[in-house]
């Protein structure tokens, strides 16, 4: 269950219209390494996680990613809310405008729609946590690229905040992977799939 | 610790933390996890500038909420860390008081908030 708190995780106050920048930032809404993808990935993976604490971490990070999605949407919204037709034409926002006017729709910077094909829920904790480590790094690289390209401090502050979160989440997923490893035989972590071959799984740690 | 054929990340140990305000600006309460990109270093860390009275009131709530989020993620992988548990308890009290105060003065933030104010505001405006 979720409840809404009417509040952004970090403030977004963008005063200038800039559809060009909106088109770049929208990738972190609906793009391959975006916040929606991150949230759906973690919230999907958690059910079958054999260590309940790791399921709890996936819930907490998946929930924070929803708040990040809201920040990204707020940024896109503020960058386009006073859009004129001239702005849209001059800054390459005309194609988006035709289909969505100035509404939010999850797509990548290059226009590809959001798709679950961009993330995995594989049913193996080592595989899923390794995917999550990579996912956090991919998102960090997107924020690096955005920070190279965008000068306006009003836009950079929330982007820097979001980038910093990717590093913290990476650390937590790494620690979660270590927790899973403690339940397994360190001479062969790949002897069985803990999410499926339950006959081999026991809850004791320190198997090495 | 370092092993072949599998990813490894060293477990973080509890150390000093930033206060709520600084942690919020940096995006983490943990100094050892604050790793800025080189292009960030060319600018000074400018604080989030609140634009209205409501935003000023909201900022202190956002700051302590954020510290609570960050310490909770730490506790997810360090469930028995006494320092982190202590910090969480302090932050829970702080956040509860800030939520009540904000709801009374401005508008309800969640369905649990008691408030007589109406709430035709959107957080993205």
Rounded mean pLDDT of chain B is 91
Number of strands of chain A: 0
Order of helices and strands of chain A: HHHHHHHH
Query: What's the N-to-C terminus distance of chain A?
Result: 38 Å
Beta-strand residue percentage of chain B: under 5%
Question: What is the residue-mean pLDDT of chain A, rounded to a whole number?
Answer: 97
Number of distinct helices of chain B: 3
Counting helices, strands and paired strands, the structural category of chain B is mainly alpha
- The total beta strand count of chain B reads 0
Q: How much strand of chain A?
A: under 5%
Give helix and strand order of chain B, one letter per element, not per position.
Answer: HHH
Separate helix tally of chain A: 8
Please mark out the parts of chain B with pLDDT under 50 across 5 or more consecutive residues, or reply none.
none
Q: Which of globular, elongated, flat, extended, rod-shaped describes the shape of chain A?
A: elongated
Largest sheet of chain B: none
**How many whole angstroms does the radius of gyration of chain B measure?**
18 Å
Helix percent band of chain A: 55-70%
